[in-house]
Amino acid sequence: MSHHKLLVVGLDGATFDLIEPWVAAGVLPAFGRWLDVGAHGCLRSVPNTDTAPAWATFATGLNPANHGIFHELGWSADRRTLRTMRGADREGRAFWRIASDAGRRVLIVNVPFTYPAESLNGVLLTGVDAPSENAPGFCYPSDFLRSVGEYRIESRIQAAIKENRPEDGLGDVYAVAERRTETLIYAMLQGDWDLAVIVYNIPDVMQHFFWQQMLKNAGDQRHAIRDGYVFIEGEIERLMACAGEDTNLLIMSDHGFGPICATPEHLVAWLKRQGFTRTLGETQRSRRQQLTRNLYTWLRKKLGESQKAALRRWLPGLRNRIESDVRFAGIDWPKTTAYAGPSPYEIWINCQGREPQGVVVPVADYECVCEDLIEALLEWCDLETGKKRVCAVYRRQDVYHGRYLDLAPDLTIEWNPEASPLAVTLEGNTSLFDADHQPEGILLAAGPDIRAGVKIHGATLADLSPTILQLLGVPIAERMDGHILKKVFNSSLESQR
Length: 497
Description:
By secondary structure, this protein is an alpha/beta fold. The protein folds into two domains: 6-259 and 435-494, Alkaline Phosphatase, subunit A (3-Layer(aba) Sandwich), CATH 3.40.720; 264-425, no CATH class. The protein contains 18 helices and 18 strands. The protein has helices at residues 16-24, 29-37, 51-60, 64-67, 95-101, 144-148, 157-162, 166-188, 202-216, 224-243, 264-273, 287-302, 305-314, 316-328, 364-379, 396-399, 464-472, 491-494; strands at residues 6-11, 39-44, 73-75, 82-84, 106-111, 122-126, 139-140, 195-200, 248-252, 256-259, 338-340, 346-349, 390-395, 411-415, 435-438, 440-446, 454-455, 459-460. Strands 1, 2, 5, 6, 7, 8, 9, 16, 17 and 18 form a ten-stranded mixed sheet that branches. A four-stranded antiparallel sheet has the order 11-12-14-13. It has a two-stranded antiparallel ribbon with strand order 3-4. The longest helix is centred in the middle third of the chain and has 23 residues, at 166-188. It is globular, with a radius of gyration of 23 Å. It starts with 5 loop residues before the first strand and ends with a helix. The relative contact order is 0.19. The model has no long low-confidence stretch (mean pLDDT 91).
């Protein structure tokens, strides 16, 4: 078996659409070396490209219908309220748990949706789903951060941008990422280890906010995305210098990136225009619904971004109730056949017997509504260019399979980035995003057990978990939806299996 260590680096939102041109221009020399001596290819994300199900699939090798997380927000049992999902909601053992149980020492830093931290043979610092760095269960061992010192899950860049302080936000992003690197290096230096995993979100946050400046080559932050990739390349080199030359390196992203195509509110507006979703008039809404919406509007205007973030973290139940009321309370359910979910990629049918006030009768009426929706979505054209807004529409059984299929959205949309509207015109774009997630992420592997010059085709996020375990020489005793990417291994490793 291979005795080489493995470093897995997650780059949230990284895309070869940017990496490869910058490699060709000499901006990313280390990426260029890794591409030359390793294997690489696009990595297909989960159907809705959402953070929560994507990282859960990365961890378990399972599709969302088997690990049970479809979005950062999930339905309550009565389907009346959205609730915040966490790592504890995920089914299936993570690959680092399997490796730990097989006697490997593992170091896991900042993988999203891993809260609370599980005990294992090594170190685990949870990710963005944790209430805070000081919350019980944030890390294992529980006293690990006492030795490390200051550590933060997230930067304050979004708050800084909304407060017109982008340079302050960029500085904070780099400081948080650098501290994350130092934390993993500290863990590496405490003794022998076999697997280290770290996730950086710099590509994601930079691309969300500075995509248009990059495309237009105009604005004070026009080079922010490029500089972010250069910075991360340096952080990976620091980690590899500590890990040693005999270490295998695997770099991946949970999804790609491109122009923002829609928001949940944008999809809601279309469903209303098409007559699938009907809403109540102002006087028809209950007093509680009116008060909730007024409170929501007041809080958004009065609270600073850091205050809003704290409220979301420490009072998730209140946040869930308010957001559910604002999003769904105005719907005239008896007259609604379909409605938007919590993401701009999902549509739900208002099914009788499933939704609290469902009107669409399974199976015949359900199929008719689905067919009407799919036809209308595929005919939706951008008014300026005439291009089709939607590339494809998938029924739940087309893209999901498993024990939690009934929790999957009825329809999932794949938007056409070539027909994206202007970001400033999108309804509900309160985050001020310039760009958003796209289905094709990245996979790049290099090292002593990796075959050089291999182009990988058809890889998915679910393939990483079994492939990583194969690199570690750990038997896979449980069922996974992903497959081992055998093509990336050199002959010496294959002969040892």
